[in-house]
Amino acid sequence: MNKTFKISYSLKNTYRVNTILYSLKQIPLIRRILPQELYRDRDLKIFANIVSGILEFIKAFLGKFLYFLLMVTLPLLIYETGEKREIFLHIFILLTLIGAWLNTYIFNPTKDKYYALILLGMDAKEYALVTYSYEMLKILIGYLVFGLIFGLNCELLVWQCLMLPFAAAGMKLTVVSYALWDYERTKAAVSENQVGAKEWIAIIVLLLAAYGLPFTGVVISETVSVVLLLCGILAGLMSMQKIWRFKEYREVYQQLLTEYMGQVADAKRAVKRQSEKVIQIDNRQGSSRKGFEYLNEIFIRRHQKILWKSSKRIAEICLGVVCVLALGIWFMPEYKEIVNRLVLTNLPSFAFVMYFVNRGTGFTNVLFMNCDHSLLTYSFYKRPECILRLFRIRLWEIMKVNLLPAAVIGAGLALLLYLSGGTAEPVNYLVLIVSMLCISMFFSVHYLTIYYLLQPYNAGTEIKSGTYRIVVTVTYFFCYYLMRLKMSTFAFGLGTVIFCVAYCIIACALVYKLAPKTFRIRA
Questions:
Q1: Which of 48, 247, 272, 331 could pair covalently with 17 via S-S, beta carbons 3.0-4.6 A apart?
Q2: pTM over 0.70
């Protein structure tokens, strides 16, 4: 058992360490100082192992902390009646029932299980018992620590807090025991990820009971809750025998993992088929353009459905929101001052709105899957002059797609400002429209630039660039930060125009200089 645990943990840790090292190698500034034989460097491996250990600790306990904080404790603040202790136990028990069914671990097919059992041929029973025991240990420790912290804060007695981890583990053991018994009866192993209609109905009912009943004053009494916790513990103890004596773990995993790998392959094929469905071919249409202009025209023409349809739909939704707000101001004039103040002082917040409206990521994804995926195999396609020329052509196209909803939002803000009382500076109307157009242009340039400079996709159309993910995440948080920024409309609009122009110039220069080296299919 001890040897099996060491091998299974080492396998998972090695997979995680290699992922960390690979991610470091994708960061341009760090990549230059890393040694050529990256995976043989002892110091880097020690660093990666430390990071891996930290990630394992976070994975083991952060989720449980957030569970007790967000799912069990914070909801208590919204209930005006009832005892905190009773409601805490009420919510915990019902959510634990859901978690026991949805997160069995044994019936969760993963890559590390595939490597260990299918590729390495490890003993399935030993592997299942060892890894499952490790997961149960993490649950016991996590629930014990946070159960005491949050439970005592919600007026639970110490002995009640001590029951929480053992009851949660007991319910999980009971569900796994039932699933193993069901396999012996039907010979069908059902993945925990395959949740059917009946299960979803049960989950919704339990969630409504957990959070809805306390509003009506109906909760599971403290005495009944303690009895249910005790039943969970006893049921878990009795279920351990079934889990220990079960002899068909190999067959269960063989079935689950075979289906899992097939589903992964099916998912990739489905993505490819979906990308092919959006292509519209019309042989009757001709064109007088040549070279890259002709290539781009064919691409845009064939992808009208995915590019312009979504843009028009977003523009229609934005127009509808503007109309509703305009009618609201008309029929409820007391809100005019609030709307006027929001438009004049909270313009930076709309950068966050434009972040979600922008279609840059979808455009670059389609570009790679249905165009660059094939053309990047030719050397002429990666010449600096060709890259910059096609970059400009594509930039103009994605700008046109994104400018439609941006124009609607900008014009809508100007209209709302006028209807809510107007402004002493008429130039603000123009600033509202221009700033939205400039933000839209920035996102168009930004996503196309990082696509050319970081090209995140491999031959299987999977995102493999850690740097790309970091840049996208930083972009999100930057836009989120702008929501807290208070600035006059004119100042923000002027800053937006200057920043957008400067960013476009820098982006074109970087693409011309660096893209011939970076614009390639990843390994």
A1: 48
A2: no
